[in-house]
Amino acid sequence: MGAPFEPMATCSMLYLSWKTAFLVAITSARRVSELRALTSEPPYTVFHKDKVQLRPHPAFLPKVVSAFHINQDIFLPVFYPKPHVSRKEQQLHSLDVRRALAFYIERTKPFRKTTQLFIAVADRMKGLPVSSQRISSWITSCIRTCYDLAGVPTMHPTAHSTRAQASSSAFLAHIPIQEICRAATWSSVHTFASHYAIVQHSRDAAAFGSAVLNSAVSQSDPAS
What biological processes does GO assign it (predicted)? Predict the structure, then answer.
């Protein structure tokens, strides 16, 4: 919520890329290969008042090729969209994935050479598409940097761990299991229950991402 990731209008493109990729990953629970298939322009990225709708490129083939998995839209929520009440709400609004995507797309326009959503920012490859491995590196770098800034030791995070953490957080927030499976593109609840549920215990299309962000806020708030 703070430096070096904020303010988004002036932070480095690398930190903006890390934060945006992380927020998309944690609020969608999608695989990195699916994030790489996202496109920056309509009709594949559509900003609504209360959410942003993302759609992979039609040529993308997911890990599991089926009618359920192919071209399934991603709905990501706004988070504290009108932060006028308190400084705390203003800070929380900095975790708004819709806001991050808007900043990222606008700031990459001058040097963008592809419609792929996530692009390189280093001089040698600036504006070109990035690989799934690079997106994965951005996500893990963001996680490690946040732990370092907080002075908290961490293990070796992976981009895929966001998938497990996001799904389990939504589950603990009582999001219906069917909505979790839809968001994470699991056709069966067995996959989640067997491999992703950290603890075994949609209201709308964007409820999944909202639950993930709210669970993180409540865990970090000493008063909660």
Answer: DNA integration; DNA recombination
Are 66 and 187 in contact by the 8 Å Cβ rule? The answer is yes
Main-chain dihedrals φ then ψ at residue 160, nearest 5 degrees: -70, -25
C-alpha–C-alpha distance, residues 118 and 208, integer Å: 22
What percent of the chain clears pLDDT 90, i.e. is strictly above it?
Answer: 42
Does residue 93 belong to any structural domain of this protein?
Answer: yes
- Decide if 25 is inside a domain: yes
Q: What is the pLDDT of residues 145-177, one digit of tens each?
A: 998 998 988 777 766 666 666 666 665 565 665
> What is the span of the domain harbouring residue 89?
13-220
pTM of the model: 0.73
Question: In the structure encoding, which two tokens stand for residue 85, read together?
Answer: 């009440």
Residue 124, CB-side half-sphere exposure with 13 Å CA sphere: 1
Q: How many domains does the chain have?
A: 1
CATH number at residue 154: 1.10.443.10
Alpha helices in the chain (DSSP H): 13-28, 32-36, 87-93, 97-108, 132-150, 161-172, 177-183, 189-191, 207-220
Tokens of 24: 């998309």
